Amino acid sequence: VKGTKMFQEITDFATKTPMLEKDLASAAQTMLSFNVAEEKVMPLLKQMGDISMGDSQKLQSLSLAFSQASSTGKLMGQDLMQMINAGFNPLAEISRTTGKSMEELKDEMSQGKITIEMLEGAFASATGEGGKFHNMLQKMSEQK
Questions:
Q1: How far apart are CA 43 and CA 89, in angstroms?
Q2: Which residues contact 87 (CB under 8 A, 6 or more apart)?
Q3: pLDDT (0 to 100) of residue 144
């Protein structure tokens, strides 16, 4: 029943945004296959949708990089590069919210100190009120 509920949420989300249902379902599948907690998948999909600005390739890259980081419990260089290539630098967001320099954060990342919780926080703050990607899909839907 949970899966059905999630599928319905994905369908509803796709209807209200420029995102395609198959792309959202694929990103959700990626996260679930890496054991991202089911209750986190929809909120993350919405955040990744805003950050990707409706670009399906960027959405897939973000979901894969996040899932990989989630499976290790921390952000590593390869996952960071994948996210940057998809248009999102979580370290820049963490820097914005913590005041730490990029150099400090890169150093912390190399020591395995950028946790999955910090990464989730970066997605949340980048798409939350005052964030660079706040309500991006909604804004794009309104422009059409």
A1: 19
A2: 51, 52, 53, 55, 58
A3: 56
Tell me if 17 sits within 8 A of 59, measured CB to CB.
Answer: no
- Per-residue model confidence as pLDDT tens digits over 59-103: 999 999 999 999 999 999 999 999 999 999 999 999 999 999 999
- Those residues whose C-beta lies under 8 Å from the C-beta of residue 128, and which sit 6 or more positions away, are 134
Q: What type of residue sits at position 85?
A: N
User: What is the value of pTM for the model shown?
Assistant: 0.93
d(CA 96, CA 22) in angstroms, rounded, equals 33
DSSP assignment of 87-133 equals T--HHHHHHHHH---HHHHHHHHHTT-SBHHHHHHHHHHHHSTTSTT
Which of 13-17, 25-29, 46-50 shows the lowest mean pLDDT across its residues?
A: 13-17
Q: How far apart are CA 32 and CA 27, in angstroms?
A: 9
